[in-house]
Design goal:
Elements lengths: L1 E9 L4 H13 L4 E6 L3 E3 L10 E10 L3 H14 L15 E7 L4 E2 L4 E2 L8 H10 L4 E2 L3 E2 H6 L6 E3 L2
Antiparallel strand pairs: 1-4, 1-5, 2-4, 3-4, 3-10, 6-7, 8-9
Length: about 160
């Protein structure tokens, strides 16, 4: 079993409800055991700025699935919620699921990069992770709490 961390985000439709439903779907998957979940955060768009704010969160799961099989579960979940991956990066989306970490596994191939690239530079990723485990170690980068101290979190609002 490995502990994996998944980032969730969306900014089309009722994004908070979509993220909640995606968390439920993941929790009900036979190969996943939900072990933690963060609060929801409203965050300013990143990359393409002319779009609605995002709602972001994270979950942790225990799984025997290898990283690529877990990625397939995440991609299928996105499709179930209407996500179409058309090549546009950082644009608006109904649901975005990112495999952030899979234990201490490091992967660099055409389908998957672990730890997720640039996660240590993004408050919208680290804030939810800190809710779950602030002492979480990102291989080769440091602890979530320490990395978060180096980032500007303005534009990230914890939702009640």
């Amino acid at each position: 079993m490995a502990r994996a961390f998944i980032g969730l985000g969306g900014n089309l439709g009722d994004a908070r409800q979509t993220l909640e439903a995606a968390m439920t779907r993941l929790a009900n998957h036979p190969d996943l055991v939900l072990t933690g979940r963060s609060a929801f955060y409203r965050t300013a768009p990143w990359g393409v700025l002319d779009q609605p704010d995002f709602v972001n969160a994270a979950v942790s799961v225990d799984t025997a699935l290898p990283p690529h099989a877990l990625l397939d579960v995440l991609l299928e979940t996105e499709r179930a919620f209407g996500r179409v991956r058309d090549g546009e990066r950082w644009g608006p989306r109904t649901l975005d699921l990112d495999l952030l970490l899979h234990g201490a596994t490091v992967v660099h191939d055409e389908r998957l990069e672990l730890p997720h690239p640039r996660m240590a530079e993004r408050a919208f990723v680290l804030l939810p992770l800190a809710d779950i485990d602030p002492s979480l170690e990102i291989p080769g980068q440091g602890r979530v709490a320490n990395l978060l101290e180096t980032l500007d979190t303005q534009g990230c609002e914890r939702l009640s």
